[in-house]
Structure formats: structure tokens, C-alpha cells
Write a structure and sequence with these properties.
The complex is a heterodimer of chains A (198) and B (336).
Chain A: E1 4-8, H1 18-27, E2 37-41, E3 49-53, H2 62-66, E4 72-74, E5 80-82, H3 92-96, H4 132-138, H5 150-153, E6 160-164, H6 165-179, H7 188-192
Antiparallel strand pairs in A: 1-6, 2-3, 4-5
Chain B: H1 2-32, H2 43-50, E1 53-54, E2 66-68, H3 71-105, E3 118-120, H4 124-153, H5 155-192, H6 200-207, H7 210-213, H8 225-249, H9 257-285, H10 293-297, E4 300-302, H11 303-309, H12 311-332
Antiparallel strand pairs in B: 1-2, 3-4
The chains are: A alpha+beta (198), B mainly alpha (336).
């Protein structure tokens, strides 16, 4: 089994937000919830970089560690998923997550949170693969159909890579060698406690 | 001759190849003289400078502009390691202390026995405020402890689904009862503040070890120094859990991610210490002291209990009643 990872090549990202749109459309994510987002650092200044970010499916995931109901589980592909039947919407995973990945629908009174929603690496949830229930709660299960996450698949500059960590690291390394520069795999140190030498 | 020519061609080709190989790095180095990352923002640098990576975002969700916040790791450490330790030591430690105390000292008796005469200590409204706050506190305490200790203690018993249902209801109770609890704390502040200002009598009371640990029963007004401590724990601790709790309940309305983490740290720490303090309060109010529970139960206490624990309060009450009676006397006479 592969160890699935995301890698955003910041030197290629053009902040087109197509990954965000593709994700929202593919999974029919409700209004106000963004499983993926593009953050621009030093916007308008020299050295500006944009990074597309979603759940990084961390090794030893902090969200899973702090969850009071143990709603999280890790698949054989090292994808961090959760059960919306177990989640109580306490919001703790957002405090622990280094990447701001967990999202909460606003339901009921006050600022009260509904069940958490986040990037599934297009791998659905605990329900049967490709079932209607799974789609309604977690979106499309592309991984079970042999496809990789849509955000990366349709990235026009191939800045966003998704797949087996070793393969995408290799692709990135080759790029860095060929073009002679690279600003590194953003978030990898935090998520996987490793980095790609560049 | 033909062989010689062949060797010459071979050597020539080899030389050409070597030249090409040697020239290759020169060609490859050309684009690296323009290195866009040299001037670009770098993750390591940003993390070192600011402890988090912040940017600009095109969606309305302002908190999504934080790209990486490693502080979540230290919050995780607090929630998974530090808080369970603080809570475990404070609560189990207090329980152990109370058991030891009960076994050595036992119930503090009314020394001169019950007189049979009673005096009003807390009126109906005071008792209502106390029990409303107390009921909310117990439910809030249990549902709160469930968030920290539930997955270790109850999850194996209830199973994943059962524990999720229980925790979901616990969250609703915790959120909604917070309003009644906060009202209770505010009312407690208002109705009892006058009797809980520390004074000279408290210094003497503490020096003599109070009514529980000391040998004698130092004089006290309506509330002795120990009760004043409980009062201020309730007011200040209750205020702290209420403020931090509402910050958590209305997430990101008033603070950013660092503020949310801090609010949870304050809420969790104050709450477990609050629970430990209230265990001692419950102990003294029930099995720790004879005649104490009825003060909040029926609202009246035995006069001998009052004499023993709140001598100055009893004197004042008696004087007030007598003054009231003597005042009532002249009112009654002119009608004659």
C-alpha cells in the first residue's frame, strides 16, 4: 500500500483556485465550507508565493489525538478519515490541526458547530465505497475507483501533486534538479516530519 | 591502414563526447543564475520568525488565511498530557485527602448537642440560587470531564456509537446549562458579596486553624474565612470558566486560533481545579460536619451549631431580632 500525500509546488502555483472549485463541485461541499483553499503569502510583494492547502493526512495526526470521541481513523493508504456518526462537533481538531483543515457547518443556535467536514483525499468515509450514504456525508470516493484526488488531477500547472508520497517526492526532486530551484514541500516537516532536499 | 583510420574515428568521437559531457554542466547552470526562490518567502524562515505562516485568502473565512500553525502541537500536548495530569492529581488527590481527613477527624459534631431551637440561615431565594448553580455545576463538571477523560474511561464501556451519543448529549447539556450556571454565579456574587469581604476576624480564624482542623471554634460572622475562600473560588473561578467557555462556544467571534487555544487551556485548567475545590465544599456540607447540610436544605440551622461555628453572626442576628421586637413594641402601644 502506498503512503498518500499532498505536495504543493509553490513555484508553480498561480493561485487560480481551480483546485478549490473542483473540490467543492466534486464533493458537493456545502456553502461556507472549504476543504481546500489557496493562501497567498507576501501578496503583491516580491517573492510572493501561493500555496494550495487542505488536510495533509499527517503522520501521527494531531486531530485524531485530541478528538474526545476518537472519531478519526487512518486507512491502509495512510489517509486520515473520520466518522460523522461519531463526531460531536466540539471543534478541538481545528485547534490542534496545523493546517486549518477541519471545517464545521454552522447549525443550530449561537456559533454552534455541526459535524466536522474535511478533505478526505477523495477517499470517502466509513460507509461502503461508492454508496449514496458515503457520498452524502463525505463526497465522492475516487480512490476506491482507482483515481487520485481531483484537485491535483486537474491542476493546470501541475503544482499540486497527490499520490504515493515517494513518487510525488521523486517528481518534485526531478523538477528541482531540472529547473535548478525549489522552495521546498510546504507543510511536509509539520505533517510528515520529513522534507524533500532541494 | 583501415584499422588505423577506424581507431582515429573512434578516438575522435570519444573526444567529442567528452567535450559534450564537460560542456553539459555549463549549459545546465545557465538558468540557475536566475533563481526565483532566492528572493521568495521560505517556510522555515516564516515559521522561525512568526511561529506561524500567515497569508491572504480570497474566501470570506478570515481564519483560513493561517496556512500553518505549529502551535497546535503544543495545544495537543496540553490537552492530551498536561490537562489529564492536572485534573487527575487535583481531583483524585482531593478525594484521597478527604478520605484521610474523614478517617482521622470524622464528622465534626455539634459539641453541646442540638438545642432543638433553630434559626434561619438561608432564605428560599438564596437556597434556590445555590441549588440551581450546584445542579448546573455537577452536570457541567461531569460532561466537561467527559471531554478530557471520557475516551479513556467510558468509551471502552459504552462502545464507539454509544459513547458518541452520550457525548453529543453531553455537549448540548454543557452548552445550554452554561447560561443558568452563569446566571447563578452572578446572583451568588450579588447576594452574598456583603458577607464575604475579608476582615480582621478572618485573620484570627485562620491563625486558629478554623473549625475543621483547629481544636477550638474561632468566632466568625455569617461566613468564616474558609467559606469566603469557597465564595471567591466560585465567583472568580466561575467567572473564568464562563468567559473562556463562551469564547469556545462562539468560536472565532472574538479571538484568533491562538486565542481559542488559550481559552481552552484556561477553561480546562480552571474547571478541573474548580471541581476539586467543590469536592471539599460538598464534603464539609454533608458528611464532614453535623448540622451543616440543613443550612442549605431546610434553610434553618440549630442554634447550638450557629453558636459553635458562627458565634458573631448568631449574636448579631439575636440582637437584630430583639431590636426588631423592641421596635415593634412602641408601634403596638399607641393603638391602645
Amino acid at each position: 500500500m502506498a503512503r498518500m500525500k499532498f505536495l504543493c509546488d509553490a513555484d508553480r502555483c498561480i493561485e487560480c483556485n481551480a483546485c478549490v472549485t473542483a473540490c467543492k463541485n466534486e464533493h458537493e461541499v456545502p456553502w461556507g465550507i472549504n476543504r481546500r483553499r489557496v493562501v497567498t503569502i507576501n501578496d503583491g510583494k516580491p517573492g510572493e508565493r501561493s500555496i494550495s492547502m487542505a488536510c495533509m493526512h499527517c503522520t501521527d495526526a494531531p486531530c485524531a489525538a485530541v478528538c474526545p470521541t476518537n472519531a478519526f481513523y487512518t486507512t491502509a493508504d495512510a489517509v486520515v478519515l473520520h466518522s460523522k456518526d461519531i463526531c460531536i462537533g466540539c471543534g478541538y481538531c481545528f485547534y490542534a490541526c496545523p493546517f486549518g483543515a477541519p471545517q464545521y457547518p454552522k447549525v443550530g443556535n449561537f456559533g454552534s458547530r455541526g459535524k466536522m467536514d474535511k478533505c478526505t483525499f477523495c477517499a470517502g468515509g466509513p460507509e461502503a465505497d461508492g454508496s449514496k450514504e458515503e457520498f452524502e456525508k463525505y463526497g465522492t470516493n475516487r480512490l476506491a475507483a482507482g483515481k487520485l484526488p481531483l484537485c491535483a488531477e486537474m491542476c493546470s500547472t501541475k503544482s499540486l501533486l497527490a499520490g504515493d508520497g515517494e513518487i510525488i517526492a521523486q517528481i518534485y526532486k526531478e523538477r528541482v534538479v531540472k529547473r535548478g530551484y525549489g522552495s521546498g514541500a510546504w507543510g511536509w516537516k509539520t505533517a510528515y516530519k520529513e522534507t524533500i532536499a532541494s | 591502414m583501415a584499422l588505423f583510420a577506424r581507431i582515429r574515428i573512434f578516438v575522435g568521437a570519444l573526444a567529442l563526447l567528452m567535450l559534450a559531457v564537460m560542456a553539459a554542466p555549463v549549459v545546465a547552470q545557465q538558468p540557475s543564475s536566475v533563481n526565483p526562490t532566492a528572493s521568495s518567502v521560505k517556510e522555515d524562515q516564516l515559521l522561525q520568525q512568526l511561529q506561524q505562516v500567515q497569508g491572504r485568502i480570497t474566501i470570506p473565512d478570515a481564519k483560513a488565511a493561517t496556512l500553518i500553525q505549529p502551535a497546535g502541537q503544543s495545544w495537543r500536548q496540553f490537552h492530551e498530557v498536561t490537562l489529564p495530569w492536572i485534573g487527575g492529581i487535583a481531583i483524585l488527590g482531593m478525594l484521597a485527602l478527604l478520605v484521610i481527613f474523614y478517617l482521622t477527624r470524622g464528622m465534626v459534631r455539634i459539641e453541646s448537642g442540638r438545642s432543638g431551637r433553630t434559626i434561619v440561615r438561608f432564605n428560599a431565594f438564596e437556597r434556590f440560587v445555590h441549588w440551581m448553580t450546584a445542579t448546573c455545576f455537577i452536570i457541567l463538571g461531569l460532561t466537561g470531564l467527559n471531554i478530557t477523560f471520557g475516551k479513556e474511561l467510558l468509551l471502552p464501556l459504552f462502545g464507539a456509537e454509544g459513547f458518541a451519543t452520550w457525548s453529543q448529549w453531553g455537549k448540548y447539556l454543557h452548552n445550554y446549562l452554561s447560561f443558568a450556571f452563569t446566571l447563578g454565579v452572578i446572583l451568588i456574587l450579588l447576594i452574598w458579596v456583603a458577607g464575604n469581604i475579608p476582615n480582621q476576624v478572618d485573620v484570627d480564624w485562620i491563625k486558629r486553624g478554623g473549625g475543621m482542623t483547629g481544636k477550638d471554634h474561632p468566632p466568625a460572622y455569617r461566613f468564616n474565612a474558609g467559606q469566603k475562600v469557597i465564595y471567591w473560588i466560585v465567583v472568580i473561578g466561575g467567572g473564568a470558566v464562563a468567559v473562556s467557555g463562551y469564547l469556545l462556544m462562539f468560536p472565532f467571534y472574538a479571538t484568533d486560533i491562538a486565542g481559542m487555544q488559550l481559552a481552552q487551556i484556561v477553561h480546562g485548567t480552571v474547571a478541573v481545579l474548580f471541581v476539586a475545590a467543590m469536592l471539599a465544599h460538598i464534603y464539609i456540607g454533608t458528611i464532614g460536619m453535623e448540622g451543616a447540610f440543613e443550612a442549605m436544605g431546610t434553610g434553618t440551622v440549630d442554634v447550638n451549631w450557629a453558636k459553635q461555628h458562627h458565634s458573631l453572626w448568631l449574636e448579631r442576628e439575636v440582637t437584630n431580632v430583639r431590636a426588631g421586637a423592641s421596635q415593634a413594641q412602641p408601634h403596638a402601644t399607641p393603638a391602645e
